[in-house]
Design brief:
single chain, alpha/beta, Rossmann fold, 2 domains, 7-stranded parallel β-sheet
């Protein structure tokens, strides 16, 4: 089968990473796979080169011209199936199939942002899903929003497929795993872009509320791209105001984030909104404890363990969950992480997700 994957760019975001993992999975199954993007960013170039997956870039700033070039590129590719992720690429692929197409189009919804329902644009984009063969969400919460935005979509054409995790890369048996609480410091890692929806300010305020003894034991390393220099400055100003420079560290995104997660004691996710966050899935697969916002499908991921879930708008609640992590012994950390690993094995099977998409392409679902 000839599969074309369409997305805005191959930056370091979760949607991009998930599409790359799927593309590699399709290729391993013997399919011909390629990418079409319209921003010249390729964070995953080495991963795709390893599997001989080509990337075509339509680098055009004018929207109408860009759409025309992308439409032509899709039709010239003559794929058997097109998979697109994210709002803009989905719309482009849906319109590119008009007035008729010879391929199956599967569009992926990746965010449970209420904007889908609260803006005319968000609703209009979902009405164009009539021109897709299948709509896939990576969370039940997002699926609910899509159906509410376009209640006429046929239920048989809407599916939930959780994210996939490469078990050869994300596993709890890595030789870089550290002994928990080494150097009497608890290493909490956060993976996500530095922007408002990821809620770094509430995290900082929660850490400020910790006791001095707890602060002395905590190190937070946040890895992610900066979307706004002004917002980054406001984050740094709050850290400076609370004198937390020796506790909280921000780093750019890195290719070997699995090594960074393996070397941590736990992962934190403080987002106000999420779809199905890759970073939680990956940390669980690596046998790490996770504390996270109780939004979207995250409670399902964490098996509804209330001691690890918090209201992202409640600073005291966040502080209490961080305090709970700091109170754990090495044995408890290992036991909790092992439970996460076992739960992730059930929810996040790579072969199941890849086969599910291939079945959608072939019309078996």
């Amino acid at each position: 089968m000839k599969i074309l994957c369409v997305i805005d760019s191959l930056g370091s975001g979760g949607a991009q990473r998930q599409m790359v993992e799927l593309a590699i999975g399709f290729k391993k199954k013997g399919n011909e796979v390629s990418f079409l993007i319209y921003h010249a960013i390729n964070f995953f170039e080495s991963d795709l080169c390893k599997y001989n997956i080509p990337v075509q870039i339509v680098n055009e700033s004018k929207y109408i011209v860009r759409f025309s070039k992308l439409r032509r590129a899709i039709r010239q590719e003559k794929p058997d199936a097109v998979l697109s992720f994210l709002e803009g690429p989905n719309l482009i692929c849906e319109m590119a199939g008009l007035p008729s197409k010879n391929w199956k189009l599967v569009v992926g919804e990746r965010s449970a942002n209420p904007r889908i329902l609260n803006s005319l644009k968000g609703r209009i984009f979902r009405w164009f899903h009539f021109f897709a063969d299948k709509i896939v969400s990576n969370s039940h919460e997002n699926l609910r929003m899509v159906k509410k935005a376009n209640p006429l979509l046929a239920t048989k054409n809407i599916h939930v497929i959780y994210n996939i995790i490469d078990r050869t890369k994300w596993n709890p048996f890595s030789n870089v795993n550290r002994n928990a609480l080494e150097e009497d410091r608890f290493h909490l890692i956060v993976v996500g872009s530095l922007r408002e929806v990821k809620n770094p300010l509430k995290m900082i305020e929660a850490i400020y509320l910790l006791s001095e003894q707890e602060k002395r034991r905590l190190t937070v390393d946040w890895y992610g791209s900066v979307h706004s220099q002004d917002y980054r400055d406001s984050v740094k100003e709050l850290i400076s105001k609370y004198d937390l420079e020796e506790i909280i560290n921000f780093h750019p995104p890195v290719k070997d984030i699995h090594i960074k997660i393996a070397a941590s004691d736990a992962l934190g996710l403080f987002s106000i909104l999420e779809g199905l966050p890759n970073t939680i899935c990956e940390a669980m697969m690596m046998g790490k404890p996770v504390i996270a916002s109780s939004v979207s499908d995250i409670p399902i991921l964490l098996n509804n363990q209330r001691e690890f879930l918090f209201n992202p708008n409640d600073v005291v609640d966040i502080k209490e969950k961080i305090s709970y992590l700091l109170s754990l012994s090495s044995e408890e950390i290992f036991s909790i992480g092992n439970g996460n690993y076992n739960h992730a094995q059930t929810l996040l099977d790579e072969n199941f997700a890849v086969e599910s998409y291939l079945n959608l392409f072939s019309g078996k679902m």
